[in-house]
Write a structure and sequence with these properties.
It is a single chain. Helix content is 81%, strand content 0%. It is mainly alpha-helical.
């Protein structure tokens, strides 16, 4: 595979980042509307929170299949169909008249949104290897990070000016624009000769091979736990920002600005280190930053009352370390399966999304009662992630 130049990868990185960001964007944009949705649809806060759980759980279940379908029919066709269906589901959310209807259409959004993040990872490995793949993955993460940073800001202003339905109208328009861009610009990266079967026997044996691989599972666990330390704050954003820190509906940038700023900086640094610093060493640097952030977060919450800016500063350091390690751990997860990259990417996203669903349903509501308990949650998830990353490195050193 050819070594890419910055010019040759910038366009494809932007397009893949936009597709990867669709899922997180559809989470973050409507967070400022939770209160309005509850009032207009006569739903309790827990019922509104369940619109997020429905999305995350259906997202996790379907991501298990996006990659296998893309391995069979090609990347481009599957992405175009998924984007069209996501736009339709967003329209259903916009027109929902009861909370139960919104649950259904949010679940339908989750079914289709995962195609972008799964297939974009497979496309990276279709095109490039080694340091080149790490650089492209870092570029995608860096550009992807901008979307969740601006999503709650856009959602806050749409909510303030037009109400909650306008958020889903915006998603319909944005997804339609992305579909047109993919239709015109996205090439097919999987040759017909390399496509895989959807026969049940083949799929069963392949899923078993991937999902019982200790090296794959430990890399995925590290990725999921690392992200969980930050995702805990995303899910708790309405409580963390509006109740604990006293910011208005339009002030979600106080959380998403530092968080996504750290993602951008860490991804840029990971790309700069590609080919110069080994992947295990880059992962170790990422954990050093995450460990420092979690420690500072705990100390600040023990020493000071909740307030700005000190309650959000550690999040920048944490996401910097997380995104520094993320491309390397992702490559380690996919590399053992060169002929089933789409399916392996599906399994990786399924495991991470499933864990995100558990964080949304169980951890976030249990911990968002105070900023101290949130900081303890971040520290605990980071330590567990570091343990799995260390175990993964040991497994890689075992011959065979």
């Amino acid at each position: 595979m050819a070594e890419p130049t910055p010019r040759s990868t910038r366009g494809i990185a932007l397009l893949l980042a936009a597709m990867s960001a669709l899922g997180p964007f559809s989470i973050d944009t409507y967070l400022p509307s939770f209160h309005d949705i509850g009032e207009k649809l006569q739903a309790t806060p827990l019922q509104v929170q369940q619109t997020l759980s429905a999305y995350l759980l259906s997202f996790a279940l379907m991501t298990l299949w996006h990659g296998a379908i893309a391995d069979r029919f090609g990347r481009r066709k599957v992405l175009l169909v998924a984007l069209a269906l996501f736009a339709l589901a967003s329209l259903g959310c916009m027109l929902a008249s009861r909370i139960e209807i919104l649950w259904f259409w949010r679940a339908m959004q989750g079914v289709t949104a995962g195609a972008g993040i799964v297939i974009s990872r497979a496309i990276v490995r279709d095109l490039y290897d080694g340091a080149a793949a790490q650089r492209l993955m870092s570029q995608i993460t860096m550009m992807f990070a901008l979307a969740p940073a601006i999503a709650p800001v856009i959602g806050g202003w749409l909510q303030t000016l037009f109400g909650w339905r306008s958020v889903f109208a915006f998603l319909v328009l944005a997804t339609s624009a992305l579909w047109l861009a993919c239709w015109k610009l996205l090439p097919e990266t999987l040759a017909p000769a390399k496509r895989q079967s959807l026969r049940p026997a083949y799929l069963g044996s392949t899923y078993w091979k991937v999902l019982t691989s200790p090296a794959f599972l430990t890399a995925c666990a590290a990725l999921s736990l690392n992200f969980g330390g930050f995702f805990l704050y995303i899910l708790s954003a309405p409580v963390f920002l509006m109740q604990h820190l006293g910011v208005p509906e339009t002030g979600f940038l106080w959380l998403f600005g530092p968080g996504m700023g750290g993602l951008v900086c860490g991804s840029w640094l990971s790309g700069r280190l590609a080919g110069k610093v080994s992947l295990p060493r880059t992962i170790a640097l990422g954990y050093a930053a995450m460990g420092a952030a979690a420690s500072i977060n705990l100390l600040l919450n023990l020493a000071l009352p909740p307030g700005l800016p000190w309650s959000v500063l550690p999040i920048f350091i944490y996401t910097l370390g997380m995104s520094l390690a993320m491309p390397c751990l992702t490559l380690f997860a996919l590399d053992p399966f060169p002929d089933q990259r789409g399916l392996a990417a599906s399994c990786q996203t399924f495991l991470q999304s499933g864990f995100n669903g558990l964080v949304a349903a169980l951890l976030a509501p249990a911990l968002w009662g105070s900023t101290l308990t949130l900081s303890l949650g971040m520290a605990g998830l980071m330590l567990a992630g570091a343990g799995f990353a260390q175990l993964h490195q040991r497994l890689r050193l075992i011959p065979g």
